[in-house]
Amino acid sequence: MPQTESIWALPVRKLTKLGILNNHPHNKHRNGSLQQSYVSFISIINVFIVLLHLFEPCSAVIYKFPVKQRRQPVSQSRNGSGVGESLMHVFRREASSSDDLTSMRNNLVGLSGNGYYIDVDIGTPPQRMQVLIDTGSANFAVASEHDPNLSHYFHEENSSSFSSSGVEIYVPYTEGEWRGFLGTDIVTLPSALNLSATVNIACITESKSFFISDAQWQGILGLAYTELSRPDSSYLPFWDTLLMENLDVSNVFSIQLCGSSFVHTRDKPLMEGTLIIGGVLPSLSKSPLFYTPIYKQWYYEVVLTDVHVDGLSLGLDCKEYNFDKTIVDSGTTNIRLPQKVFDATVQIIDSYVQGQHIGPYFYTGSDVACYADMVVPFSVFPVVSFFLLESENTSFRLDITAQHYLRPVENIQGGGVLPNQSCVKFGFSPSASGTVLGAVLMEAFYVVFDRNTSKIGFGQTTCPLPDPAHQILERTISGPFSSNKNLNECAYKKPDSGEARYLVISYVMAGLLVVVLLPMLLLFAMWTCKLVRRRRRRGDSSESQAVLSGS
Predict the structure, then answer these.
(1) Residues in domain Peptidase A1 (predicted)?
(2) How many Cβ atoms sit within 10 Å of the Cβ of residue 316?
């Protein structure tokens, strides 16, 4: 820094011209002392400048933050060959019409609490499998070994189009895990205009607490972004490959999940739903669609701005609702809330249901509540509302009634629902990894995942209510609502590992500078004080001598 160096390098003669030093005989000792003080001070500053130069590489790194770049479309396979060489075929058909989208209706089925699945055909000749629709992961994986929970599995050795990469894969979850190996094969969606692509497949050879008994699905179809792909993001997810091989398909999909009915004659609470590939079907929503921005493209992360119970805000800092993220996940059954938010929600709900013999284990999910007439819980359990960011100063509200967050379940003895009673589980649960807007919330809405514009849309579902005889709200989505604060600040901003590392370095460097500089400054201050006292004594002595000599 040239200016700084020139200021501190002022020669003594310039100080003399400025009057700071003078050549009066009586000031001879004072001039010498000040010159010594000045030289000493300059020496200390020079040492400090040297220290700064020594730390300059570290300080330069601290302010060098990486800039996230937009991913470019993949044009080559991992072995370097062109995509056209590795793909068996690329479909180029006319863009999907409304009739095409309508033909995809009711292509999902499932059981309450066990998720929604879709039929897929894998390999040559095709093997029909059922896979769970999961917007909270990015891998396409199917069982390829016998499992006692499964009725059948994928025989990759019987597919002439299957190609193994020899890469092993391990995917752990909060509860459960699976292992296997990676390969590629042709996958067709028979309920979606027979769309087909050669995709990465994880063949599951062993698992723990992953497959569910009687769930009727043998694999999982992850629809999240590439960043979640395992073992790394170089393995394109199913959705990305489908778009690459079907150039007319728009980068949009939408989901309508119709939950179980409390009024049914089946032995088990069956569910159905719709997965629309490549567009939006307006007839699946009773209301206009409200869109919230996708905050980060890994999970489908969004931003909550508030949570209300019976119209009253929980009153928490809005960052608490998004700690450490908020995602929309069709593969998770419940609405999962951070512990602090969950506790506040349960406390208010419990105050409304006093006298209903609801024990604490009901809220933990360990117990069920059974009713002969569901009008009782529907009349006492309050509406829970979630406010989602729409723009910097606006939000919209999703209302969840007891018809959706009290989940119908089978009798706990396993004999089916009792003839005169309906049993329910609490549809909220605590989370240690952020808010998850799971199937319980999605069943109340038609949800559009618009990856083209990086937004998620919500509309009031056209699915019949779980108990049509006891409608609670005519309208379950409303807005926009204005705010005088910047709602973007509700997002939880987690520093990445690189920024955290640079922050630690900066703290260490600052500590070292304090340790080195502070003693030097203290010594300089002590030395200056002594010098001033000595100068004053000498000045007093000179004046006394002058008085005596004058007399």
Answers:
(1) 116-459
(2) 15
Q: For residues 21 and 336, give the distance between their C-alpha atoms in angstroms, rounded to a whole number.
A: 75
Q: 318-342 in b/e burial notation, b at 16+ Cβ within 10 A? A: bebbbbebbbbbbbbbbbbbbeebb
Backbone angles phi, psi at 108, to 5 degrees: -115, 145
Domains of the chain (ranges plus CATH)? 2-65+498-550 (no CATH), 87-249 (2.40.70.10), 283-494 (2.40.70.10)
The single residue listed with the structure tokens 């979630």 is 386
* pTM over cut 0.90: no
Q: Does the structure show a pLDDT above 90 at 526?
A: no
Q: Give the tens place of pLDDT for each residue, 361-409.
A: 999 999 988 888 888 899 999 999 999 999 999 999 999 999 999 998 8
Contact between 327 and 136 under an 8 Å Cβ cutoff? The reply is: yes
Nearest to 467 by CA among 394, 381, 347: 381
Query: Which residues are catalytically annotated?
Result: 134, 329
SS3 letters for 447-495? EEEECCCCEEEEEEECCCCCCCCCCCCCCCEEEEEECCCCHHHHCCCCC
Residue 250 in tokens: 């728009």
Q: Residue 32: CB partners within 8 Å, gap ≥ 6?
A: none
